[in-house]
Amino acid sequence: MKKLTEAKKSARRRGKELEDALLTAAWEEFQEKGYDKLTMEGIAARAQTTKTVLYRRWPKKAIILLMAFRKFGPDIHFEVTDTGSLRDDLFNLLSAPIAGFKVLGEEAIRGIVADQVGGNIGNLFDTLLTSDGGFRKRILTILKHAEQRGEVDLSKLSDRVINLPILMYLDEILSTGFLTEAGVREIIDEILMPTFTASQRKE
Questions:
Q1: 128 three-class SS
Q2: Which has the closest alpha carbon to 32: 49, 45, 16?
Q3: Whole-angstrom Cα distance, residue 199 to residue 147?
Q4: Helices 86-94 and 135-148, interaxial angle, to 10°?
Q5: I need a surface site. Which of 47, 76, 96, 162 has the fewest CB within 10 A?
Q6: CA 186-189-190 angle, 5° bins
Q7: What does the pLDDT read at residue 117?
Q8: Cβ distance 97 to 179 under 8 Å?
Q9: d(Cα 122, Cα 130) in Å, to the nearest integer?
Q10: Is 124 helix (H, G, I), strand (E, B) or coil?
């Protein structure tokens, strides 16, 4: 966990100094009160500023908490492995955000999803899943390794199929409000593996 810094108290705070103070206040409020009791008023009071200052940057608490999570939560690294097994490589990649979900907790994830539905649910996906970008490229790399082993035929996989892991992530988050190892394994075993390996070249 990244170390929190004390919010500056000067009324003249601007730019990054002010933003850091607001995100620090949001994260500390969340740690103390949880998502349901997290309020824009509480964040503003802790940061010694006004709600107007908050709303100018972030329209709702779900978004400010996601930004605070990006700053103070655990780093999420989507690493591509080459274990010799498509199933294992997919699990190693897709299970990466679980640590972040555990830090936020089920109450917060479900609250964020509920608050963002009808708004910009992409903020949740971008922050928790693809904050470092290149998610689709990682899937492609894993599939290329699998093709070299004869597990799949990449030429027979459409863009829609290659994007399936991302779609399954969103579906899991929206339908359950959380992400677990068991959920990731079900996605892989019941959907991804049968779909990907169906393209395997026939001798």
A1: helix
A2: 45
A3: 10
A4: 170
A5: 162
A6: 75
A7: 58
A8: yes
A9: 10
A10: helix
For residues 188 and 142, what is the distance between their CA atoms, to the nearest angstrom? 13
Task: Say which amino acid occupies 167.
Answer: L
What pLDDT was estimated at residue 145?
96
Burial 44-68 (b: 16+ CB within 10 A, else e): bebbebeeeebeeebebbbbbbbbb
Q: Name residue 92's amino acid.
A: N
CB 124 within 8 A of CB 66: yes
Q: How many CB atoms lie within 10 A of CB 167?
A: 12
What is the spatial distance between Cα 162 and Cα 69, in angstroms, rounded to a whole number? 28
Q: Which residues of the chain have pLDDT under 50?
A: 1-10, 131-132
| CA 203 – CA 196 distance, rounded (Å) | 17
For residue range 126-179, what is the model confidence (pLDDT) as tens digits?
555 554 457 788 899 999 999 999 999 999 999 899 989 888 877 887 788 788
Which are the contacts of 24, defined by CB distance < 8 A and separation ≥ 6?
4, 5, 6, 7, 47, 68, 72
d(CA 144, CA 142): 5
